[in-house]
Amino acid sequence: MRNRDLSFWLFLTPVLLGLILVVIVPLIYGTIFSFTDWNGLSATTFVGFEHYLNLLHDEEFIDAIVFTILFSGVSIILLNFLGLSLAILVTRQIKTNNMLRTIFFMPNLIGGLILGFIWQFIFISVFGDIGEALQIEAMQGWLSTTSTGFWGLVILTCWQMAGYIMIIYIAYLQNIPSELIEAAKIDGANSWQRFRNITFPLVAPAFTVSMFLTLSTSFKIYDQNLSLTNGGPFESTQMVAMEIVKTAFSANEMAYGQAKAVVFFIIVSIIALTQVYYNKKREVDM
Amino acid sequence: MESKRKLYIIEIVGVLLGLLWLSPFYLMLVNAFKTKKEIFSGVLDLPEAFTTANFVEAYIDLDFTASLFNSVLITVVSVGIIIFCSSMAGYALARNKSKLSGALLLLFVSAMLIPFQSVMIPLVSLFGQVEMLNRAGLIFMYLGFGCSLSIFLYHGAMTGISKSLDEAAIIDGANKFQTFIHIIFPLLKPISVTVGILNVIWIWNDYLLPSLILGEDNATIPLKMFYFFGQYTKQWHLALAGLTIAIIPVIVGYFFAQKQIIKGVSEGAVK
């Protein structure tokens, strides 16, 4: 099939139309209109970098970025630790390993919105009750402070995504030749040494994949944020995605919201590309 | 081989973790059977009498038959279109080794980097101007957002399918489209299952895009759940019954296809 063939282009037409009309045109159109006073329908004046300069003093937006970065950092560490631990657990020859895989993965299939509502109940009612029964004040009023809201989101994300990360690690763990482990055993390596020197280096590519996934997912989280805390108390647990939706559709500031969206796109791209680059480099060294 | 005793301890740890993982679902389900007063007096207790009234009321208020229908319709049609169009594109790009097709593949793959929030405002505005803020428009948007990963997976799978099959079909008088439909597409079935599963998971659960496109009349399950929850914020017995109802279709699906789902997800994630 050559470029000149009509069939080549016919086969590509539907997806090209989809990509161009749904992703590329809006991205270009939106970027252009972020330099105007666009209200979603029409724009009358070109304002240059005004919206972008305003962003520098927009505390709500900056707070959202800081919160998102902190949340992503903590989530990546915990998720990879949990995911790898669960993967090691279910790749042992225990009777329940298949059932456990099914259970750990289950939350991934249920949407973030619904999971957030379930956990809202757990944090408010269940934690409250347990806190009362055990006289632990810290367990009451979860989600009503900034730090408990933060940890609430982290717990929800870990519970939801650990099973997904586990699946990635399982795929790589199963590729480790068992002779390698046996040989190390004969040489007298204990289980920590075997993990440190064989398993860990060989699952490094899984770390690249899962870090990319956790980073890009946690950066773009919206549903869980909306249903668990709705950004509260006082917008202190609001992540970037939610801040952009609010600016555009609640405050009805389309051009300003789009400027935020462009900055968001740039941040996500830089992080994703840098991270893949560094992880690839590290893999080669091992 | 590990000692029996060590495996026994690992097994116990695993089961305990599994129970911990399931506990949110347990707490939701148990409390969905209680009255408002019972939830208030103790969330950890078992219900006195398992009352089903909450489920009936939540089912009616959720308008569940209608939202289930909408979710199924939108998911099935979108995923069907994504599978059909992306497999054709993956085939065309894999069989054509030119700079242009390499560039097109790169374009599709790099589009995966673009977060939805970066394009949603102009997207809603543009589709609104051509009166496409409806189910058809939504399905088309899912094609645009879903095709990147799908093409990437199909393109990878094509390397395992010999070119001599195409040539044989052409000699037998089939045109390119017939070759694709009768010879190539059936061979792509394993990857189609993966592509289907990955797309079903996100489209079924998507909230933000339907919330911007569809009104309450054509609401999908997540969208309806959002309205419903807002209405019953302080009435946990009804809210929890509603959440349980919304989860049931997913659990039933997972029960029947768990092997394929886990396999599909791991293939999608590793590539």
Automatic annotation (TrEMBL), chain A:
InterPro entries named among the record's database cross-references: MetI-like, MetI-like_sf, UgpAE/MalFG_permease
Query: Mostly located where?
Result: membrane
Q: Which residues form a coiled coil?
A: none
Q: Where is the ABC transmembrane type-1 domain?
A: 65-277
Q: Where are the transmembrane segments?
A: 7-29, 64-91, 103-128, 148-172, 202-222, 261-278
Tell me the first and last residues of the signal peptide: none
Keyword Cell wall biogenesis/degradation in record: no
Which UniProt keywords are given for this protein, alphabetically ordered? Cell membrane, Membrane, Transmembrane, Transmembrane helix, Transport
What the entry lists under PROSITE patterns is as follows: ABC_TM1 (PS50928)
Stated membrane topology is: Multi-pass membrane protein
The record's comment on protein family reads: Belongs to the binding-protein-dependent transport system permease family.
**The protein, known as:** Sugar ABC transporter permease
What is the source species? Gracilibacillus caseinilyticus
TrEMBL record, chain B:
Q: Which UniProt keywords apply?
A: Cell membrane, Membrane, Transmembrane, Transmembrane helix, Transport
Q: Which Gene3D superfamilies does this entry report, sorted A to Z?
A: MetI-like
- Asked if the Swiss-Prot or TrEMBL record annotates the protein with the keyword Transport, the reply is yes
Q: Does the keyword Lipid biosynthesis apply?
A: no
Q: Name one Pfam family in it.
A: BPD_transp_1
Compartmental location = Cell membrane
Looking at the UniProt entry, the stretches that span the membrane are 7-27, 72-93, 105-127, 139-158, 179-204, 236-257
Every ABC transmembrane type-1 domain range? 68-257
- State the annotated membrane topology for this chain: Multi-pass membrane protein
The entry assigns this protein to a family as follows:
Belongs to the binding-protein-dependent transport system permease family.
Q: What is this protein called?
A: Carbohydrate ABC transporter permease
Q: Organism, per UniProt?
A: Gracilibacillus caseinilyticus
